Amino acid sequence: TCLSHGSYEGRNMSTCYAHQSRILVNHGQWVSRGQLIGRVGTTGASTGNHLHFEVRLNGNPTDPEDWLPGCLC
């Protein structure tokens, strides 16, 4: 599941979420902050439940830690 966040500093920004056991939104659907978009799973080349999270600028993956505040430990 990839969500488009519009333009950021002149670049298209999106976030992507993979290995979901269930996707709860449809292509083209608008979503709200805090809305559940899927359930964590272990689909694809995976050995246990986890979330694959990406931040993309103009379609290119970038380090997601640059976008997350503080430690998520």
What does this structure look like?
The chain has strands spanning 2-8, 11-18, 20-23, 38-40, 52-57, 60-62. It contains no helices and 6 strands. It is mainly beta and 73 residues long. The chain has a single domain (2-62), classed as Distorted Sandwich (Glucose Permease (Domain IIA)), CATH 2.70.70.10. The strands form 2 sheets. The protein has a 4-stranded antiparallel β-sheet with strand order 1-2-5-6, with no helix packed on it. 0% of the residues lie in helices and 42% in strands.
Structure characteristics:
two-stranded antiparallel sheet, single chain, globular, mainly beta, 0% helix, four-stranded antiparallel β-sheet
Low-confidence stretches: none
Strand content: 35-45%
What is the fourth-level CATH superfamily? Glucose Permease (Domain IIA)
Compressed to H and E, one letter per element, the order equals: EEEEEE
Number of beta strands: 6
Rg calculated over all Cα atoms: 13 Å
CATH class: Mainly Beta
Strand order of the largest sheet: 1-2-5-6
Which structural class matches the secondary elements?
mainly beta
